[in-house]
Amino acid sequence: MSDYENRPVPEGINISPSHPLKEFGLLLGGISAVLLTGVLLLSLLAGHLVRYVPFAQEKALLSGVDIGWLKDDQNTASQQKQRYLQALAERLATNMQLPPGMSFSLHYSPDTTVNAMATLGGHIVVYQGLLATLPSENALSMVLAHEMAHVRQRHPIVAVGRGFAVMLALSSLAGVGDGAMQQWVGNMGMLSMLSFSRAQEEEADAEALQTVLRTYGHVGDAAAFFEYIAGRPQSLEAPAIFNTHPDHAARIARIQQFAQAHPGAAGQVLTPLPAFLKKP
Question: Whose CB has fewer CB within 10 Å in the chain, the N or C terminal residue?
Fold first, then answer.
């Protein structure tokens, strides 16, 4: 008699013990996690590598682009303000350890926005709304030095490099054609919407304080801008954990701690802003 036999096949061997939708969800989640991790790593790598792009090349990126908000108003009053801002920035620059060839181009905007912004190529825009609220040149210098620190540390090109890498990855995954990429590259007007991380903002704050200290011998009024912002009605501001900018109270506290550690000369003298700068 033979030792072999045809054993019956067990029932249900081709049926998964878990629901198919659960397995699909796990598969979809896993693929999404891998893709997101890949895009994140690509973004970080791009942000690291673009720091090695020479500043002259960074400036050249904007040389052939027609960007309306970087055009200076040609009326006499605006030109006077632009010259004052440029001179102040150049004075502050002498107290920053700038790499060879780095320079700043200051622009004045009559807009009522209470802010200033830095973008590619060392361009910095200062709005009338900001000038109208600051109490002294010292306070203005703190804001300018902060924006200049963003440029010195190459934060604008890092933001652009990361954004380009993410756009390139998503376009490849979605199968979007070259038209979308060309539109993104050509849409340099969106450079005014560059955002920096909280760590970059804190880095710029720290360097700005050192620059103001070297320029004036003290940091009086350095917190004026943040105190003004903190005193405005809080409307729809995002919670600190979701905000790229550090909390205003925390920034003011850090400035106060820095001032206590560097008291400077007794009787700090604040430099008033010229009257023409306040006029809209």
Answer: N
d(CA 36, CA 34): 6
Give dist(CA 67, CA 55) in Å, integer: 19
Q: What share of the chain is helix, strand, coil (3-state, %, to 5)?
A: 60, 5, 35
For the chain, count helices (H), then strands (E): 11, 3
* Per-residue CA distances from 145 to 81, 89, 134, 191 (Å): 17, 8, 14, 20
Q: Which two tokens stand for residue 165?
A: 């890498």
- For 171-197, b/e burial (b = at least 16 CB within 10 A) is beeeeeeeeeeeeeeeebeebeebebe
Other C-beta atoms closer than 10 Å to the C-beta of 57 total: 10
Residue 234 zone, left/alpha/beta (φ > 0; ψ -120 to 50; rest): beta
Query: Are residues 152 and 232 in contact, defined by beta-carbon separation less than 8 angstroms?
Result: no
